Amino acid sequence: MLSYLFSNEKVRLKWSDVVIALLFFLFGLFIFNTMYRVQVDMFWHMRSMTIVIFDKSELFRPSYDAMTRIASYVLGFFSRKNFPLGYVCFLSLMLALKYIVLRSISIDYFSRQGKEERAELFVLRAAVVLLCLGGHIIAFPQLVSGYWQADVLRMNVWHNPTTVAVMPFGLLLFYFGCLTVREKSLKNFLILAVLAVLNLFSKPSYILAWAPAIFLSLTFLRADEEGNFSLNFTLKRLLIALLVAVPVLIGIFYLKSVTKSVRDNVMISLPFAIQSHLLHIDFDRNLNLMAERLLGSSFAAIKGSWQTFWYLVFYKPLTMICGLAFPAAAFFVSKRKKDGLLVFGWLTLLISFVIAYTLSQDTVHRTHLNFTWQIPVAVAALFLASLLNFFSEEDNFPKMSWPAALTAGLFLLHAYCGLLYLQRLIFTWSWR
Quick one: average pLDDT of 91-117? Predict the structure, then answer.
């Protein structure tokens, strides 16, 4: 199945991969079975889906959480009573699938370079496990403030079920987008269409960033035999790029319950979006706690332009540095800075930030920051691209240079902070 999907006979999982995926599934059963009982997001999401299944005509309606709703109902043996069981099983399956996707992508990436042995390195396989479990923003802001809802840069968002559900499909969409730029085959376009629909009906946020990124890549970038991107524009490439928009537009058209809300309340304004971030309770509280610990006074008394100034000059740059330290360092030490996976990863993340700081929703949706939820998937994709690019460098093995060793250390620090966050989550059952 995997070898057919990737058009690569070398993409085959070993029994050890099956065992690791099973362990991820069992871990998911443990953590999600408790979290939906105590976490607000998970509980209300399950409650709304349970209400919907009373009306069977509404059960299969297209929406942003259709995948989770239908799969949970099926895995719960088509019973409202067993729906929580199906809910937990589905999220656990998505966690296991995330590992399988990351492992398959790494095998395909290195086999296309003729470096199959790199994909089997123990250290790389351990790094993939850490991407599934522990990758996180470096915890300086959290350790200072004691408040762990730090920012949207984290890649593993355990408390949000739609983010858990979309992650494996988002990573596949990211990788096959790069493969399509490299090889414009009918099969790749069909796979992109299916993955786009799966993303739209799991959590459509990532599509907001991926669609412009793939359009720009197909239109203006050309891949060579080694997978490096360079600028190249033709009318034919523009027409091919427009074809990719078809399944995305069809999916958005069927998301009736979401599009009406977005259409009525969306605001396109940089000042309005920044103010919306400041109004969000998690960002506002974390900013104030950090100010109290570092400066001895809270920002609560500082309003208007001064609060915005310190948010933009101090807090936001700090969280971006702590959140993207490894990808930035990996890009700096890389000798293949035009690697397609790396270029597409940074492009998608850049578009994600543009969306997050130019678009916002008015009324009650304003402080929900719904236009930031593409960032966790984009960050996960960028970490994956940076990790694979780092391991593809010949000079990094068997003896690393000091910059490469520092880069590896930053990755381990990201992973360690993610495990700290997961430990806090398990012992307190709070994502803050």
Answer: 93
